[in-house]
Amino acid sequence: KIVSNHPITVISGHACAQIPTEYGGCDPISTQIPPTVNWGNSFLLPPLTSRTNGQRYKIITSKKNTTVEIKCGTNLMEIIVLSKDGDIHQFDTNSSEYCTVLTSNPSYVAEYGFGH
Question: Which of 49, 87, 106, 111 sits at 20 to 30 Å (Cα–Cα) from 2?
C-alpha cells in the first residue's frame, strides 16, 4: 500500500508478462495507476480485437464493502462484494464482447490482452 499526503501516480510494468500463464508467449506490459481521487464507478470495457485469445480485467477497489456488477454483452456475469479496501477481482472475456463494470465505491480497472 502506498500512502501520500498529496495525489500521486504509480507506474509499473514487466518486460515479459505471461497473461495467462498457460499461454506460451509473453509480451511487455505497463500501467499507470492514477490517484484514488481520480478513480471511477462506471466503466465501459472494449474488447482488444487484435487479441483473438481474449483479455483479462483487473478491478481494484478503494473502499471496503464495494459492490461490483459485471456485464458482458447482454449477460450479467456476476455481482460480488469486495470486503476490504484494495481488494482485487479479475475476470476474463473473449475477444468480441464489450463489458461494463459498475462499482458502489471508487475503483480502478485495468485491461490486459492475452499473450499470443
Answer: 111
